[in-house]
From TrEMBL:
Bilayer-spanning residue ranges: 6-28, 37-53, 59-79, 91-110, 143-163, 175-198, 204-225, 232-251, 257-276
Pfam families to which the protein is assigned, alphabetical: ABC-3
Signal sequence, renumbered to the chain: none
Domain of life: Bacteria
Compartments, as annotated in UniProt: Cell membrane
GO CC entries: ATP-binding cassette (ABC) transporter complex
GO BP term, pick one: response to zinc ion
Keyword Nucleotidyltransferase on entry: no
Organism of origin: Caldilinea aerophila
Annotated protein name in UniProt: Metal ABC transporter permease
Family assignment from sequence similarity: Belongs to the ABC-3 integral membrane protein family.
């Protein structure tokens, strides 16, 4: 393997783990589609922040994306609480509207800037090794390696620091509130983390692969594990497997890397869905026949 191939796989594996860990709680909270909404609407936060900073490298772009993710969640919950529309319908109303505004702003005011909608949606991992960091005149490696690695560390630190609170708020929010854990604040902090994860992975893999890694590995892990700690480990491992195997599938077929990785993530879920020891389709049929 060439150094570039190794770097692509390492970056993809880091993105997979960074997305799968918060994805576990999205799946458990039945908010899987919220990741799809956030991964699209954060583009509006990036665009607005760019208009203020005039720089695509400013850290304010990530801050704007995180705030837009929180705004997306707030608007969805605001609509849901009216009881006039269900949560899935609220998501379908909010995220196309915000995403469309972002596309209009890009096409109208930033058409000459390297802020391309297709690149945001699809990404291109093959180019990640070419954008490198130089320290004291020496090659320090791809910039995406540090970005995705930083996001992975941030997600791990957040889950380690608030593991008990997240666990309780996910399975029994009423008890969490009674114990003074402030599940509302924790919820919005978690959604901000999801937003940062989504925008941090945009440049390397695109939002479509972010959604695939946030949902498919945790959904597969849910069928394999009966404890939250194991589900987190399984989701991260399945994400890494999907990233590495997807790269080699793309290499063999000369196809899209992101598309192949998303395909392998879906195949991993399908395998769990069919063959999971206790919750798989075949296992349930055996128990029903016994």
């Amino acid at each position: 393997m060439s150094p570039a191939q190794i770097e692509i796989q390492v970056i993809a594996a880091m993105v997979a783990m960074a997305c799968a860990l918060p994805g576990v709680f999205l799946v458990l909270r039945r908010m899987a589609m919220m990741s799809d909404a956030i991964s699209h609407t954060v583009l509006l936060g990036i665009v607005i922040a760019f208009f203020f900073t005039k720089s695509l490298t400013s850290p304010l772009l990530i801050a704007g994306a995180a705030l837009m993710g929180v705004l997306t969640v707030s608007l969805v919950e605001l609509l849901s609480r009216t009881h006039l529309v269900r949560e899935d319908a609220a998501i379908g109303l909010v995220f196309p509207a915000l995403f469309s505004i972002a596309i209009i702003l890009i096409s109208r005011f930033a058409s000459n800037v390297h802020l391309d909608v297709d690149a945001v949606l699809l990404g291109e991992l093959a180019f990640a090794p070419f954008n490198r960091i130089q320290l004291f005149g020496m090659d320090a490696g791809p910039a995406a390696l540090y970005t995705t690695g930083g996001i992975l560390v941030l997600n791990v630190l957040f889950l380690v620091a608030f593991y008990k609170e997240m666990k309780l708020a996910t399975f029994d929010p009423a008890l969490a509130a009674a114990l003074g854990f402030a599940p509302g604040i924790l919820h919005y902090a978690f959604m901000a983390l999801v937003s940062v994860t989504a925008v941090g992975a945009f440049d390397a893999v695109g939002s479509m692969l972010v959604v695939a890694f946030m949902i498919a590995p945790p959904a597969a892990a849910y069928l394999l594990a009966d404890r939250l700690s194991r589900m987190l480990v399984y989701a991260a491992a399945i994400g890494v497997f999907s990233a590495v195997s997807g790269y080699w599938l793309a290499y063999a077929l000369d196809a899209s890397i992101a598309g192949s990785m998303a395909t392998m993530a879906g195949a991993s879920f399908l395998a769990s869905y069919l063959f999971a020891p206790a919750r798989g389709v075949l296992a349930k049929r055996r128990m029903a026949a016994a």
